[in-house]
Every structure is written in structure tokens, then in C-alpha cells.
Design a protein that fits this description.
Helix content is 30%, strand content 22%. The protein is built from 13 helices and 20 strands. The protein has two domains: 20-76 and 156-399, L-arginine/glycine Amidinotransferase, Chain A, CATH 3.75.10.10; 79-152, Orthogonal Bundle (Pentein), CATH 1.10.3930. The chain binds arginine. Its EC number is 3.5.3.6.
């Protein structure tokens, strides 16, 4: 049963660690069966996952959440339900066929063909894509394209629901993804939040046509305080726009802009830093010392940007606490680097001091436990090939407030 907050809403997130009540996941499906050694780099996977096993691992992840009384919503199901609405269908079909590679003939053909599908088939096609040899479109473009070319690209990274939307208090930010392989994902989250009855009337604080911001970069350190990584995905202009938007709606008083290295290993802030308690963070030791933050605030009119400060100092100040504890995993640099690559730093808190982590990051997990954090281990040998851990694979929709 859905827990409803006192104000009657079944959504809202104002911290990283408040008891998790509702989360959106995406059970990996046919979109992963599109990965080949020829396209996996472009599609941001480091290997070719065994899909059946990835699904089993994902089911176990969902079960671990349900065992802790978390309601699990699935993106694919929400999309199917949203696509019951003719306006949702029209929007989704237009978005998926906008690509200039198609040309008019193929576009018209695809629009008509998609229009014939029932909501479940349409959702499936929007996620798994369409290959040239799967349709009998006819015409010049079809003839010139290779059989295996995609007319609508598959979206294997839907698995990482963290990135394509993020709740900021009672508003949802539909994000703007930077990598071409992922941009279309937010057309789908936009459809869900606009047309699914569960989210009727929800306020949207960001949209997918604005400057790039990815959910993996956005951490709700505590009520009113966001940390936003700026690097490979979220751009400087993205964090500026997000700050303007959240301040205008009074959803935060401080946004900490946190520069992170522009490289794949540290693509999002949550690959190097996640919260495990109201006042404790797990940080990748090789980067912890250098991490700086620029505190952005507003006087109601303009943005004020403070000088860079050590991340933990700026964060504690913004939260109004003495110190934000860094859980020191004390790992040697090589072990730390290996475990960070395997998403050891990408934990998902289900409550203060309880987090879900991949079992393979043995050393990091042991250090967390030594620091008094309960670690719920899940296997991720196949899931991990997309380079994302429990936090990346989850979009919290409702968290209870943390006790103050
Ligand atoms: N929040 C995260 N760290 N997400 C990880 C996303 C991984 C995905 N393959 C990508 O490259 O975009």
C-alpha cells in the first residue's frame, strides 16, 4: 500500500537518507538485447550483459527494497499506463521520430506504424527501439541504410533511473541528459510525469530541453541543500539554471556546485560520493581531499557564488551542522580505484545508516560496516556492465523526513 504523507502527497524527497518509501526502477529488458560489440561503447556499456542474469539480479535488488517496505514502481509499467492517454501517445511518437536521419517517408511510415500499437507494445518499442530490418518501410532511406541500423535507437541506460529524473522536495526535475545515447530517455520520463494519473498536477522544476543536468549529479544533502556535480554530464550552465529554478520555487536555499573530473570513471557526483547518514558521506578516497564546492545562494534576485571551499566544509555550513563526517574507507589507492570503478561508492541509503551496495566491493563494504553502517549486499556482475550501482539504478519518489 502506498504510504501517503500527512499533506496527502505520495511523492517528495528532501534528503539522501530519509526512510525510503517509494522508488522508481527500470527492470532491464529487450533494450539490453540490442547491445553488440559494435555499439556498446556508443551506448555507454562496457560489455555485453547476460540479460537473463541481469534481470535476476535486478529482481533481487527490487526484492531487497520491498523487504524494507519500499514500494517499487517500474518505469516500463508507468510508461505503459501513461500511454493510455492519446495526448501522451502523440507526444511520445512525435518525439521518437523527430530524428533528422529518418527523412519524411520513413518518418511518416513509422508514425503510422507506432500509432497502431497498443500501449504496452508502444512502450516496449520506445524503449527497445526499431531496427531497419524489422519493418517493411520501403523508400530511399530504408534502402540506403544498413539492415542493422536503428531507426529508433534502443535505450539500454534506462536501467539508471537516477539520471532521467530527480525529485526535489515535491517537484520533479525532468533532466536534460548530455550523452546522445541517452537524450531520448527524458522524453519518456516527461511523458510519465505529465500523463500518468499518479503524478497528475505535479510541479515540474526542470525539463529536458534546458541545459544539461543529470540526476546522478544531484544529491539532496539535507532539506534545502543540494550538491550538484559539474563534469562530464552536468554543465556549468546546467547547474546555474537548476539553481535559478529551485530558488525561484523555494525548493532549496543553497546549491553547492561541485567540480568533478571530466572522465568516465567519475561521470556523476554519485560515482564518488553518496550519503549514508544524515551527517555522513562515503567518499572515494582518491578524490576526497581535492573535492571543492562553490556555494550558490540567492538574495531573491541574483545568484551569489561563494569562493571554492573544501566540499565537506561547504556542505556542513550549508546544512547548519558542525561537521559532515567522511567515512574513511582507508583503502590503498589501487583497491580504492578498482572498487570505485565497480560502483563501491554508489550506495543507496534506504534509511539513515542502512544502505544497499554491490557485494563485489568487498573492502569498501567492510569499512562501511566498521563505521556502523548496515550494508545490504546485492549481486551485480551483469548489472554492473553499464557502470552504475544501486544509487544510479533508483529514483526515489518518496522519502520520509529524517528526524531532526
Ligand atoms: N548516476 C549514475 N552514476 N549513473 C550511471 C550511468 C551509467 C550509464 N552507462 C552512463 O554512462 O550514462
Amino acid at each position: 500500500m502506498t504510504e501517503t504523507r500527512q499533506d496527502g502527497r505520495a511523492y517528495g524527497v528532501d534528503s539522501e537518507v530519509g526512510p525510503l518509501r517509494t522508488v522508481m526502477l527500470h527492470r532491464p529488458g529487450n533494450e539490453l538485447r540490442r547491445l553488440t560489440p559494435r555499439n556498446n561503447d556508443k551506448l555507454l556499456f562496457d560489455g555485453i550483459p547476460w540479460v537473463g542474469r541481469a534481470q535476476d539480479e535486478h529482481d533481487a535488488f527490487a526484492q531487497a527494497l520491498r523487504d524494507r517496505d519500499v514500494e517499487v514502481l517500474y518505469l516500463g509499467e508507468l510508461l505503459t499506463e501513461a500511454l493510455d492517454d492519446p495526448a501522451a501517445r502523440a507526444q511520445a511518437i512525435t518525439g521518437a521520430t523527430e530524428d533528422l536521419r529518418l527523412g519524411d517517408t520513413l518518418r511518416d511510415y513509422l508514425r503510422a506504424a507506432l500509432g497502431e500499437l497498443d500501449p504496452a507494445q508502444l512502450a516496449e518499442t520506445l524503449m527497445a527501439g526499431i531496427r531497419n530490418d524489422e519493418v517493411r518501410a520501403g523508400g530511399l532511406v530504408t534502402s540506403l541504410l544498413a539492415h542493422e541500423d536503428f531507426l529508433i535507437d534502443p535505450l539500454p541506460n534506462l536501467l539508471f533511473t537516477r539520471d532521467s529524473s530527480v525529485w526535489i522536495r515535491d517537484s520533479v526535475a525532468v533532466t536534460s541528459l548530455a550523452m546522445p545515447a541517452r537524450m531520448r530517455e527524458t522524453q519518456l520520463t516527461e511523458v510519465i510525469y505529465t500523463y500518468h494519473p499518479r503524478f497528475a498536477g505535479v510541479d515540474k522544476v526542470y525539463d529536458h530541453q534546458l541545459e544539461h543536468v543529470e540526476g546522478g549529479d544531484v544529491l539532496a544533502l539535507g532539506p534545502g541543500v543540494l550538491a550538484v556535480g559539474v563534469g562530464e554530464r552536468t554543465t556549468p550552465a546546467g547547474v546555474e539554471r537548476l539553481a535559478q529554478r529551485v530558488f525561484a520555487k523555494d525548493l532549496a536555499h543553497t546549491v553547492l556546485a561541485v567540480p568533478i573530473a571530466q572522465q568516465r570513471a567519475t561521470m556523476h557526483l554519485d560515482t564518488v560520493c553518496t550519503m549514508v547518514d544524515t551527517d555522513a558521506v562515503l567518499m572515494y578516497p582518491n578524490m576526497a581531499e581535492q573535492m571543492r564546492a562553490l556555494a550558490v545562494t540567492t538574495d531573491g534576485d541574483q545568484l551569489h557564488v561563494a569562493e571554492p571551499e573544501p566540499f565537506l566544509v561547504a556542505a556542513a555550513k550549508a546544512l547548519g551542522i558542525d561537521t559532515l563526517r567522511r567515512i574513511d574507507t582507508g583503502l590503498d589507492p589501487v583497491t580504492a580505484e578498482r572498487e570505485q570503478w565497480d560502483d563501491g561508492n554508489n550506495t543507496l541509503a534506504v534509511a539513515p545508516r542502512v544502505c544497499i551496495a554491490y557485494e563485489r566491493t568487498v573492502e569498501t563494504n567492510a569499512r562501511l560496516e566498521e563505521s556502523g553502517i548496515e550494508v545490504v549486499r546485492i549481486s551485480g556482475s551483469e548489472l554492473g556492465s553499464g557502470r552504475g550501482g544501486p544509487r544510479c539504478m533508483s529514483c526515489p519518489v518518496l522519502r520520509a523526513p529524517t528526524a531532526t
